[in-house]
Design a protein that fits this description.
Layout (H helix, E strand, L loop, with lengths): L25 E3 L7 E2 H21 L8 H46 L15 H21 L4 H6 L9 H47 L8 H39 L4
Antiparallel strand pairs: 1-2
């Protein structure tokens, strides 16, 4: 079964990728709440590999680390230093570090499946995972604010101090939408759409390569070399995007927590 190049069809024409790429057929447990399609299986695989990676690299830690231990420590230190402590300080950074670490590596591992041969689609390219992560970040933001200032968190968020009372009729709806609606929505959609667009572009490049090499006539076959080069170049770009989206998602989660913990709240 060809997982990446479905678009050159028997009619001899070229057909680009469609949104149907993200709704593959059920392959396991059909007609049950546990139905599994290829994307769900990729998500499970990503989580299993993530857990296995950290179990293998941390079960016998040494003073002089092995290469794999060094990779794990670099990743963990990156989240701790550049995201948690940099934005939240050492005390609150340590408090929220497990969540930020879990978000960073979960997004990273599920994103990177989009460029792994045989998988070829990100686990975050369907809204389920981005939505769960966005709601988790949102719930943590609310929890942090209420925990810090249970009496005044919502009041200060919706009625910012120092604003003339007459302006609250304008300011309060804006603050409500921007703080309590736009934040989780933008977190979810930013991750989702980056993975959707990346997958569609990769399929477009490589299915065009297949079409030019094996279906097109004459000199048109030469275009296959160009689409192949662009496909490989964009694959490397997708690896960068996978890293950036993991960083941005966890960074914004930390920023929202920091805002919730700010003194004015």
């Amino acid at each position: 079964m060809n997982l990446l190049l479905p678009s050159a069809t028997d009619d001899g024409g070229f057909h680009g990728p469609t949104i149907n790429e993200f709704f593959p057929e059920i392959v396991l447990f059909a007609d049950t709440p546990f139905a599994m399609n290829r994307i769900m299986m990729i998500r499970v695989l990503a989580v299993v590999v993530l857990m296995l990676f950290f179990w293998l690299t941390t079960r016998r830690m040494k003073v002089i680390p092995t290469r794999m231990q060094s990779v794990a420590e670099m990743g963990l230190d990156f989240v701790r230093v550049n995201i948690a402590e940099d934005l939240l300080g050492k005390k609150d950074g340590k408090r929220f570090l497990p969540l930020l670490t879990a978000i960073f590596f979960m997004v990273l591992f599920m994103n990177i499946t989009g460029v792994i041969p045989g998988l070829n689609i990100a686990g975050t390219s369907v809204i389920g995972v981005p939505l769960v992560l966005g709601l988790t970040a949102y719930a943590t933001f609310i929890y942090a604010g209420v925990k810090k200032n249970p009496k005044n968190f919502f009041r200060n968020a919706l009625f910012p101090p120092g604003v003339p009372p007459a302006l609250y009729i304008i300011v309060t709806p804006i603050e409500f939408v921007s703080t309590f609606i736009i934040r989780p929505v933008t977190l979810t959609l930013r991750l989702l759409m980056n993975m959707v667009v990346g997958h569609l572009l990769l399929v477009l490049f490589f299915s065009a390569t297949q079409f030019f090499f094996f279906t097109a006539d004459g000199g048109f076959k030469l275009f296959g070399a160009g689409t192949l080069v662009f496909g490989f170049a964009f694959t490397l770009f997708e690896v960068l995007i996978a890293l950036l989206q993991a960083y941005i998602f966890s960074l914004l989660t930390a920023v929202y927590i920091q805002l919730a913990l700010a003194e004015e709240h």
